[in-house]
Amino acid sequence: MAGMMKAFVMRKIGEVGIMEKPIPEAGPNDAIVKTITALVCTSDVHTVRGAMGERTDITLGHEACGIVYKLGSEVIGFKEGDRVVVNAITPCYTCHNCQRGFTSQCTQPLGGWKFANIKDGTMAEYFHVNDATANLTPIPDDVSDEAAVYTTDMMSTGFKGAENADIVLGGTAAVFGLGPVGLMAAVGARLLGAGLVIGVDSILQRMELAKTYGVDEVVDLSKGDPVEAIMKLTHGEGVDSAMEAVGVQASFEGCIKVTRPGGTISNIGYHGEGEYLQIPRMEWGVGMAEKTIKTLLCPGGSERMSRLLRLIQTKRVDPTKLTTHRFKFDEIEKAFRMMDTKDDHIIKPIILFD
Length: 354
Ligand SMILES: [Zn+2]
Ligand SMILES: [Zn+2]
Description:
Blueprint: E1 4-12, E2 15-22, E3 31-39, H1 42-49, E4 58-59, E5 64-71, E6 83-86, H2 96-99, E7 126-129, H3 132-135, E8 136-138, H4 145-149, H5 154-164, E9 172-176, H6 180-191, E10 196-201, H7 204-212, E11 217-220, H8 226-233, E12 239-244, H9 249-258, E13 259-267, E14 292-295, H10 302-313, E15 323-328, H11 332-341, E16 348-352
Parallel strand pairs: 9-10, 9-12, 10-11, 12-13, 13-14, 15-16
Antiparallel strand pairs: 1-2, 1-4, 3-5, 3-7, 3-16, 5-6, 6-8
Helix pairs in contact: 5-6, 8-9
């Protein structure tokens, strides 16, 4: 009989808890990873609220790193005991959508998102990785577990938000929402050469952190209309690139309003509620202002993960500044509750397994 492990699960919509499960087994192309470090994500909160539909006893989590515990016979390039990180998104790299280059849409819309969606996630003592040759990434010795685990979603998603925003060298960029992904989008915009990065939020701790991450101008939306503030900061022109990192109507339409004709709106936010999003007709140039709206789901795979790890190695970014709280695995429910309520100005809670 297989050994047992503890897992943090969504029992049903609105209900979570720790339960015992068998340690997962590896098929020929799979790996089993023993978890060292994990992060709780606001997406986990959305999932438990029912944004993806009903789930029964599914293990939560998609941001983790650990040690290779078991390898399938066909997995190439790794051995048991290797320290590895796994992106939140684990595509197959063979289906039609993957071959078309849309690996996060593996097989079906959002189909690369397998953890805590179509199979058990990573908030357990062990987790299963499909198509492990492409989805395991070795962690360089000079990168800590805590830094590495930020590549799984916050860095990959935030940076893709900036890449999708068609950042103009020396141009202007705005980020609505300075949560962990929005902050990484701002860092990405700087790394890609934006000449002015404007951030929008209302929480003091996030706005202060944004400045340490190189955001040039922070707009406090509790003090007035952020659209007006951004138009003023850009002398009435608007920005070349606007990134939406909240997932609500107000910031989505704010992005469209502040984008210059010919500019790009990059949606990063998870729009977890409502049937429709509305586009402001006039600021969209009644459909003719050549404003492009792009969307994304965290890109995965070891090629991208290696590049993100390199940015940590060469000190282009220190994602660990996002960690505001630390918990042991048996305190994970508290971490999850805090991520739901955003108590104590939590930005990112890290979970340490022993
Ligand atoms: Zn996440
Ligand atoms: Zn695929």
